[in-house]
Amino acid sequence: MTSDKQVRANQRNALKSTGPKTPKGKAAIRHNAVKHGLLSQEILLPGEDGSALKELDEGLRDELQPVGELENMLVDKIIAAAWRLHRLGRVEAGIFAREPYGGVAPGAQGKADNAALGLAFIRDANGANAFSKLSRYETTLERSLYRSLHELQRLQVARRAQGNVPPPVAVV
Questions:
Q1: Interior CA angle at 151 toward 150 and 152, to 5°?
Q2: What residues contact residue 57 under an 8 Å CB cut-off, 6+ apart?
Q3: Residue whose C-alpha is closest to residue 74's, from 155, 126, 153, 152
Q4: Kind and range of the H or E element at 90?
Q5: Nearest to 86 by CA among 5, 9, 142, 28
Q6: pLDDT along the chain (172 residues), means of 10
Q7: Tens of pLDDT, residues 107-133
Q8: I need a surface site. Which of 9, 14, 77, 94 has the fewest CB within 10 A?
């Protein structure tokens, strides 16, 4: 248990730390808390292929053809969920690379990157079953993707019908 004196000292010290002030300093600490990136606000993490994300973005926008700000926002959510699901597969491969061997399995650099993601996820799981936690994350990401897709489709049907036909009922 922390003493009152220590609590007061911690509060005084916290007031002295104001964080980075310059854009360079802010950029330097931007990814400090990122572990595995499955719940990150950033879609593209350092070391990931920006051109692959752009290709996914363009492909889904061509296929889903959003119109207006709300439809574009839903497509953004679909893209983010799909990208994170792709990353989840790499995390799972990384857990397999770390767990049975106690180290990085021999092979390509991509396997080492996956192993690093897997290790970060294992640490984040705090000793719990990493695969169980990963499965919960996968369920959450899939639910987000399908809800966004369903809402997009519902809005598009309503827009195309222009009020002549009621939109499909939203799934909750």
A1: 90
A2: 79
A3: 152
A4: helix 68-98
A5: 142
A6: 84 74 60 55 81 96 95 96 91 74 47 74 72 87 96 92 63 60
A7: 444 566 777 777 777 777 766 677 888
A8: 14
